[in-house]
Design brief:
heterodimer; A: 269 residues; mainly alpha; MetI-like fold; 2 domains; B: 264 residues; alpha/beta; Rossmann fold; 6-stranded mixed β-sheet; 4-stranded antiparallel β-sheet; 10 strands; 26% strand; binds adenosine-5'-diphosphate; binds magnesium ion; ABC_transporter_ATP-bind (chain B)
Chain lengths: 269, 264
């Protein structure tokens, strides 16, 4: 432990933990997790078949990618998420901005959109399968339905929060309504839209896995269901790890995108 | 009605619909003129309808009865001829200072070269020449208000409307900004209407003070600070020391007290 933990107590009431302490704590909790896992599987406390050792899971993850063409499944999953998510954004962002800018537009769409939000997207799976068969369409449709209504509402709420003074400033500078929306409201709300997209992308991953587990022969979820048939718990766990890693990766990518797009949000004083 | 008044407020009343289907009479039958190239200060206790009157001049609110005339025409909505500066910061955070100042000209189709030149001129005028490439989030409160003022002036309004523009600033910065406004008024010949509840600010800036009483907002008194002898004096300390400053301040304090609110 470092010297500052000697001078101050480790558990300080409502005082921020230092960088070192946070890193130490984060590594610590994961070390304990893997420690317990390794211990349990090596001492035979748990059934090797149901809970394979972590080293075995990592080995089969490597094997999946190196020898079994798992990368193809991963790419299919990624393209499903990104494709459906992009389509949802193309509709939700303009619509949400319009709804947040014009109460008349909100009055038209809000009753419709908010009703759909109460319908869990997976409840559409059976009907989507009947309508679209087993190709890509039902999966994309599920992701689309699962994401779009929340995204519209988030974008609308953020748009409404754009301060009235900004709008009025633009009006008194001689801006027309369309100019106010395009040149003031939209750029003002854009950072929040990107944050909303980041949150919704995480949700899209959830629906993807559901779609692939229920009705797919390709993708990460389908691989996991295949593995289940052959009692390959190590491969199921590999799938979980890869999904988690991808989720984290996309989240970091969005955070980086946000920093890159909005340098003016970084305060230098 | 004088020949050279640019804004005429004619029997203007405004009532707002409030909760319970009731109406609140915020402004009651107010009439006054704002002379061209003058600084007119709207003074009164808070809640007396100063902002409402200013917003009707801007075209952001519509009078319930009466009319606001600019250059002889009734105001019908906001327009480029009446620029507005708010108390809250209104800098467009995604644009540099330069682009903020260019904004009005850009949406009004001023060619790029002229835009750049005018923006540079007004950025310099408000003392932000060195910060033209900075983002507003990197500036202090006073500097952000300077951006808002430069942005409005660069758009070439006939009237500059300001609603407690320095209310959020600390005393020292507010003082500097008030002196800046005298300087700007002298250099640009822009008519200004300034809302404030700060007596000192009113006396220092005003060519004419329009005092409103509250609930409902009525015109109580129009006051010309004669002691300045029609001059604009850019040094606040100097103004405070002039004969007659104290008397006027005492008079305004009395008016404020009569309104039963905070006296200065
Ligand atoms: N949009 C509005 N809706 C309802 N009441 C309002 C509205 N705007 C102002 N008022 C009321 O009108 C009165 C005058 O307000 P305002 O013009 O903001 O006063 P001031 O700027 O002098 O403080 C206040 O009582 C205020 O509550
Ligand atoms: Mg006000």
């Amino acid at each position: 432990m470092s010297s500052d933990t000697r001078s101050k107590p480790f558990f300080r009431l409502r005082q921020p933990a230092g960088r070192k302490q946070r890193l130490f704590s984060a590594l610590g909790i994961w070390a304990i997790f893997f420690g317990v896992w390794v211990f349990a599987s090596s001492t035979g406390m748990v059934n090797e078949l149901l809970v394979p050792a972590p080293q075995k899971v990592f080995a089969s993850t490597y094997d999946l990618f190196a020898a079994r063409g798992f990368a193809g499944d991963v790419l299919i999953s990624i393209s499903r998420v990104l494709g459906a998510f992009a389509m949802a954004c193309l509709v939700a962002v303009p619509l949400g901005v319009m709804m947040g800018s014009f109460p008349a537009v909100e009055a038209i769409f809000a009753p419709f959109v908010s009703a759909w939000r109460y319908l869990p997207a997976p409840s559409f799976i059976p009907i989507l399968l009947m309508w679209f068969g087993t190709g890509e369409a039902p999966k994309l449709a599920l992701l689309f339905i699962g994401v779009i209504f929340f995204l519209i509402t988030l974008v609308m709420d953020h748009t409404k929060n754009v301060r009235e003074e900004l709008v009025e400033t633009a009006l008194t500078l001689g801006a027309r309504r369309s100019t106010v929306v395009m040149k003031v409201i939209f750029p003002a709300v854009l950072p929040d839209i990107v944050i909303a997209m980041r949150q919704m992308l995480a949700m899209a991953w959830t629906y993807l896995v559901i779609a692939e587990i229920v009705a797919s022969t390709t993708g990460i979820g389908a691989m996991m269901m295949r593995a289940r048939r052959f009692l390959k718990t190590d491969e199921i766990l590999s799938g979980i790890i890869v999904i988690g890693a991808l989720g984290l990766l996309f989240d970091l990518a969005f955070a980086a995108l946000h920093r890159w797009m909005f340098p003016y949000l970084r305060k230098t004083r | 009605m004088t020949a050279d008044s640019i804004l005429e407020i004619r029997n203007v009343s405004k009532s707002f619909d409030i909760a319970g289907g009731k109406k609140l009479l915020a402004v009651d039958d107010i009439s006054f003129d704002v002379e061209r190239n003058s600084i007119c200060v709207l003074l009164g206790p808070s809640g007396c309808g100063k902002s409402t009157v200013l917003r009707m001049m801007a075209g952001l609110e519509t009078p319930t009865s009466g009319a606001v005339m600019i250059g002889g025409h009734a105001v019908d909505g906001p327009g480029q001829d009446r620029g507005m500066v708010f108390q809250a910061y209104t800098s467009f955070d995604w644009l540099s200072v330069q682009k903020n100042v260019e904004f009005g000209m850009k949406i009004n189709g001023v060619p790029a070269a002229e835009r750049r030149e005018r923006a540079a001129h007004f950025t310099e005028l408000v003392g932000l020449g060195k910060f033209s490439e900075a983002y507003p989030s990197q500036l202090s409160g006073g500097m952000r208000q300077r951006v808002a003022i430069a942005r409005t002036l660069a758009n070439g309004p006939e009237v500059l409307l300001m609603d407690e523009p320095f209310g959020a600033l600390d005393a020292e910065t507010r003082w500097l900004m008030q002196e800046l406004m005298i300087d700007v008024a002298e250099k640009t010949n822009t008519t200004m209407v300034v809302v404030t509840h700060d007596l000192e600010e009113a006396i220092f800036l005003a060519d004419k003070i329009v005092f409103l009483s509250s609930h409902p907002g009525r015109l109580k008194e129009e006051i010309v600070p004669d002691f300045k002898q029609g001059r604009r004096i850019g040094d606040k300390e100097h103004v405070v020391k002039l004969d007659g400053y104290g008397n006027l301040e005492a008079h305004l304090m009395r008016l404020m007290r009569e309104e039963g609110r905070h006296a200065a």
